[in-house]
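Action item from last week, closing it out:
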Amino acid sequence: MPVEISVGPPALTINQGRTFLVTDLGGEIAADTEHGVYADDTRFVSSYAIFANGQPWARLTSAATTYFAARIYLSNQPFATEEREVPGGTLALVISRTVSGGIHEDLDVTNYGPMPVRFNLEIAIRCDFADLFEVKSHRFVRRGRIVTAWDAAQRQLCTTYTNGDFERTFLYCLRKSGTPPGYANGRVVFEIELQPGIRAVTMSWPVGPPSAAATSRRPPRPRSTASSTTGRSGRHS
């Protein structure tokens, strides 16, 4: 009898404890896939993409360096600025990620071209708070309410899911950046200007437990906030 073997697209997977990050080889989380940021059987992040002036980056190479860390090397595709056209391969972007309680990410951008480059680094991020079983079955039922708010003073994006008395919160916290971030049209935006040969650490953000980035709450017996690694499934009817 023939044996059917199904092989999905290659992916980068890192984890520690009950927190997992699954992306494509370019470090992105594509919508309508099983990729995402997971904690305690809930997918917190369902889509993550990064752009240079609206253009996606091209992958050079990537690998999981340990079970809890990964590094992705990207290069820009051609894009237009107010000053000129920027050829492909002018900029290099290195994404370094570590799962340690939460998820920590560093983005390093280098200008290898002969001229200064001014552009917007854009990060599009979405949450669905889907139950792991819904993700696996590809049958997603929308319940409850999801609200996203940008706090410019705290430099963080807060997305909260509520369904009755059940609540989950995802915080995207920008701890360090060379330029102040903004938020518009569903994207975190950095205005970057790089001189030739200059490397910039664009930002660093931790997400996930225990830094209160992914929390669950069931008030009022007792009313408390706990790390998502100790909460229950993210969607309840």
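Closing note: Confidence is low (pLDDT under 50) at residues 209-237.
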